[in-house]
Write a structure and sequence with these properties.
seven-stranded antiparallel sheet, two-stranded antiparallel sheet, alpha+beta, about 30% helix, globular, about 210 residues
Length: about 210
C-alpha cells in the first residue's frame, strides 16, 4: 500500500494537470477486462480476510468552506496547489489515510469538466506507478449534495496480473468550484465504504 499512497500523493501534487487531460479508450477491451478484474478483486478480498470495520464516531472537516465527514481522530494534511504554500477556500488539497485506505480531495476554481477531472486523476495515477497496470472497471453518475457529478472505479494489477489495489475517483462542481475525490486501497469493501461516506456526506460551501 505504500506505493499506492505515493501514487495518491502524485495525484495531489499534479492536480492542476487535470485541465490538460482528455479521456479515451477501447470500450471492447474494457468490457473484456471487467469480469476478470472483478474475479481478481474477489480473490484479493478473500485473501485479506479483513473484518468489517467497527462503526466510528464521525466529525466534520470545515476549514475551507466545504464540509467533509471524517472518522473522529483521523489526521489530515492540507496543502496549496500550483506552488502555493497553504490551501485556501479557492483551491487546495487534503490527504488522509487510515486502515489501508488512502484519500485525496482536490478543489479548485479552474474550469474543469467533471469527466476530464476523473480521467486526469486516473492518468496521473498511471504515470506515477509504472510498475502497476491500472485498468478502469466501471463508471457512472454521482450525486453529491444535490449536485450531479461522475465517478470511475479502477483496479491496479502487478506484473503477475494480481490485483494490488482498487480505487474510485469522483468529481463534481458546486459554488463555482470543482472537487475531485480519489480513494484507493487494498480492500474493496473499505474503499467503497470510504468513497461512499466521503461523497455522500460532503456539503458544498454555503
Amino acid at each position: 500500500m505504500k506505493r499506492m499512497y505515493s501514487a495518491l500523493a502524485a495525484v495531489a501534487a499534479g492536480a492542476l494537470l487535470l485541465t490538460g487531460c482528455s479521456g479515451g479508450g477501447d470500450d471492447a477491451a474494457l468490457k473484456k477486462d471487467v469480469e476478470s478484474l472483478k474475479a481478481s478483486v474477489a480473490k484479493l478480498e478473500k485473501a485479506t480476510g479483513l473484518a468489517t470495520p467497527e462503526p466510528r464516531k464521525v466529525s466534520e472537516f470545515k476549514d475551507f468552506g466545504f464540509k467533509l465527514p471524517l472518522p473522529d481522530g483521523l489526521q489530515v494534511q492540507t496543502a496549496g496547489l500550483a506552488g502555493a504554500a497553504k490551501a485556501s477556500n479557492d483551491e487546495g488539497q487534503l490527504t488522509a489515510s487510515s486502515g489501508g485506505v488512502g484519500m485525496v480531495l482536490i478543489w479548485t476554481k479552474k474550469s474543469i469538466d467533471n469527466k476530464a477531472a476523473v480521467q486526469g486523476a486516473f492518468e496521473l495515477l498511471q504515470s506515477s506507478q509504472p510498475t502497476l497496470e491500472f485498468k478502469p472497471v466501471s463508471q457512472g453518475d454521482l450525486k453529491v449534495d444535490s449536485q450531479t457529478g461522475v465517478f470511475g472505479s479502477f483496479a491496479a494489477q502487478d506484473k503477475q496480473q494480481k490485483v494490488a489495489a482498487v480505487g474510485a475517483i469522483g468529481s463534481w462542481a458546486c459554488k463555482g468550484q470543482v472537487y475531485t475525490l480519489t480513494v484507493a486501497g487494498s480492500n474493496q469493501q473499505a474503499v467503497e465504504g470510504s468513497f461512499s461516506g466521503f461523497s455522500s456526506g460532503f456539503k458544498c460551501p454555503a
